[in-house]
Amino acid sequence: MGKRTQAMVVYDAAGSQQRAAKRARPSADAAAGAVVPYDVMTPIDAVPLNAVAPRPRWVPAPPAIIQQVPEEPAYLREHILPALGLRDDLPVHFVDSKRVTDTDLDAHQNRFRLPADGVLRHLRPILTAEELDAANLLHDPLPKPRRQPEPEPPLQLESLTAEEGKKVRKKRQGMVHGGLPVRMVDLAAGASGELLLSRWSSSSGTIVKGGGYMDFVRRCSFREHDVVDIWAFKQRELRLFGKTMVHESHLHLFIVKRDGTQQQSRQE
């Protein structure tokens, strides 16, 4: 028998490590069926499309409402102010516009109501603190808490008069309201006598009232449902070296129809 020649085998360390790693690596089929723990899974940061809120659309703010001041009547300084004995360069202030209601012409109401917003914005700034206090306009009225009506003692409503021998009813007197002296002016009726400007504490309504109001309003040019502009002016006293140069006047409220035409006075 012949002798077998033995070959020399060289040990490859790098190749041995690669083969060992290949044997330790699991196959694709085995990995597909393996159970992966829940805590090692990374959550998906996604939101369904239907759940995404749409972006709000930008809507521009509405423009501020600016009240248009009507043009001052041309005849005011030429005729009205001189006829009242006032300076023709007197500052005249626009108060507000309103629609004449039936209550403004009602003899039972006996008052002319002024727009509350115009009184607060335009009439109050031209009055002094004493004048505001007289008209009950110095402080804003506080809201009154609701109270249960208290029982009142019975009133003696009937009394027998010795002269007529008839039963008459005694009327309960209402609350006495003061006021700031004021005169109303209309082109057809002229100037009224001294009236009173006051604000009711109960309803916060500012009104002009007083004796002679109905006699004045019957001669005025405006009717029910007419739109009128209200102008206010007041002449302040001016003294120079102890001498009165310009006298103090009442507060005047000039009522002008919006269409610019003044009708003839009413027939009583």
Shape: elongated
Percent of residues in helices comes to 10-25%
Structural class computed from helices and strand pairing: alpha+beta
Low-confidence stretches: 171-176, 261-268
What is the beta-strand fraction? Answer: 15-25%
Order of helices and strands: HHHEEHHEEEEEEHEEEE
Supply Rg: 46 Å
In oligomeric terms, what are we looking at?
single chain
Mean pLDDT: 78
Q: Biggest β-sheet: count, sense, barrel? A: 8 strands, mixed
Count of alpha and pi helical runs: 6
Number of strands: 12
* End-to-end distance: 164 Å
Write the layout of secondary structure elements.
Layout: H1 13-24, H2 28-32, H3 75-83, E1 93-99, E2 111-114, H4 116-123, H5 129-134, E3 158-160, E4 167-169, E5 180-186, E6 190-191, E7 195-199, E8 206-209, H6 213-217, E9 227-233, E10 238-240, E11 243-246, E12 251-257
Parallel strand pairs: 5-12
Antiparallel strand pairs: 1-9, 2-8, 3-4, 5-6, 5-7, 7-8, 9-12, 10-11
Please give a handful of descriptors for the protein shown.
268 residues; alpha+beta; 8-stranded mixed sheet; 6 helices; disordered C terminus; transcription regulation; nucleus; transcription; TF-B3 domain-containing protein; DNA-bd_pseudobarrel_sf
Describe the structure.
InterPro entries: DNA-bd_pseudobarrel_sf. The protein has 268 residues and is α+β, with helices and mostly antiparallel strands. The chain is 17% helix and 21% strand. The chain is built from six helices and twelve strands. Strands 1, 2, 5, 6, 7, 8, 9 and 12 form an eight-stranded mixed sheet that branches. It has a two-stranded antiparallel sheet with strand order 3-4. It has a two-stranded antiparallel sheet with strand order 10-11. A hairpin with a 6-residue loop joins strand 3 (158-160) and strand 4. It starts with 12 loop residues before the first helix and ends in an 11-residue tail after the last strand.
